[in-house]
Each structure stands twice: as structure tokens, then as C-alpha cells.
Write a structure and sequence with these properties.
Blueprint: E1 2-11, E2 14-24, E3 29-33, H1 40-47, E4 55-60, E5 63-64, H2 70-75, E6 78-80, H3 93-99, H4 109-114, H5 117-136, H6 152-164, E7 170-174, H7 182-197, E8 201-205, H8 209-215, E9 218-223, E10 226-231, H9 233-237, H10 240-247, H11 256-263
Parallel strand pairs: 3-8, 3-9, 6-7, 7-8
Antiparallel strand pairs: 1-2, 1-4, 4-5, 9-10
Length: about 260
Amino acid sequence: MLDVQGLGIRFGGNHAVRDVTASLPAGQITAIIGPNGAGKSTFFNLISGFYQPTSGRIVLEGQDITRLKTHEVVGRGVARTFQTTTIYRELSVLENAMIGHRVRTKAGLLDALLRTGRERQDEAGSRAGGLRALERVGLAGQAHLSAGALSQEGQKRVGIAMALCSDPRLLLLDEPAAGMNPEETVNLMALIRELVAGGLTVALVEHKMSLVMGLADRILVLHHGQLIAQGTPEEVRTDPAVIEAYLGGHAHGGQMGQAGVSHA
């Protein structure tokens, strides 16, 4: 689905991401993990077009998207959520979801001011797209509610619905379980599995190792901006370089899954 080749970015003299070569396979869940400051969110910002790399290439389904702007990357089928739930609490759940569909509309400012036929057609399309996305995340019955009235899990689902409204093939989730309790986390894992079963490819940055180990098909491990390991959850759990990065060499592979929950 997506390949990065020698990807890197430098801020002044600091290499936030350096020489990362990896793949996000189609139809799978890939987790990007690493200690705090490892470059995980920066990596997401690069592949979603928020940052321009200083080295390397990003290839989506055979097409080079390295220099595309954010909205162009979204237009190619890549959508993302953010660490902080970016919803409009005063708007309805449906109105929030509709915002994500705007990247697919054609009406401009003049159309909106004059309420042209194109504007009305786009609005109807956004409403239909928003309802479809809410159905996929289990919020169709709450479409009329204020988004701010939902639980933390509900607001996270609204954020995912906003991303789904852009009709992505690759969905990037940045710490989707942040702030959730264990029950909400389990519910989120089930939703992500459903989305992948429905045809999406998912990549996620996550600190909750219980979620990562129970959900991911493949894991990429970053440390100081470099890729130090990749493979299945079991392969990564027992990788000496990963144990060293997380635990400073003071534990063995059998402790990775437990210690990673609190130290990741």
C-alpha cells in the first residue's frame, strides 16, 4: 500500500526521523511504536503531507507522493486522526462528520454565498457521506447530538468518522486510545478490526502496548528517529534492540509486553 525509502527530516541539526525504509502492507494493521521522542508522530506527519521530508521518498500504490501537499495526499486516499481529538464540540455529530467530506466537494466560496445548485449538491453529498461514516463507527443513532455531549470514546469515534468521510484507503490513527479506559480501548480495537475487514488499511501510533500487541499484524519500532526493528508482535516483543530501547537493558524479552504497557 505505502512504502517509504530512506525517509528523513531534519529540524536544524536534529534528525527527527532518519533513513527509515519500511512498508505499510495493504489490508493490514501496522503499529508504529517507540519510546517518547522516538519520532513516531513526526513519521506520521511526513507520510500524511504535514511535513516535507529532507530526504527519501514516499510511494503510495506505486505513485510518488513525497512532495504533495496535505490536501493532495488526502485526495490520493490517505486520511488521519490526531493525538488530541479534533472535533467541534458545539456542532452536531453529523456536522462534524460532514466536515471530513469537504475535501471531495467542488463548490467554492461564491457557490456557498449564492447557494448555487453545485453548493446544494455538495452539501447533500456531504450529509450522505457523513451518515455513512457514522454508521461505520456506530454513531448513526447519535447523529443529531452535540459532539461535546459524547463520551471520550464517542468523541474518538467522531474523529475517525471525519477521517472516513474523505473516503480513504489508508487510515492513519495517531494515539487513538489516548484517554480511554480499558473497556473503551477494547471497543476501539473491535472497531479498527471491523474497518480493516471492510477494506481499509490502517496504521497507528500508540503507547498502549496491550492494544498494539493484541491488534497489530505488523509493528515498526522507532528509536531516536531510526527504525530499529520490524515484524510481527511476537518478533518485536523478543527483539533485543526493542527491549534495550524500552527498558534500558534491565529486563529480558519475556517482560516486554508487561513492561511496555507502563513504559511505552
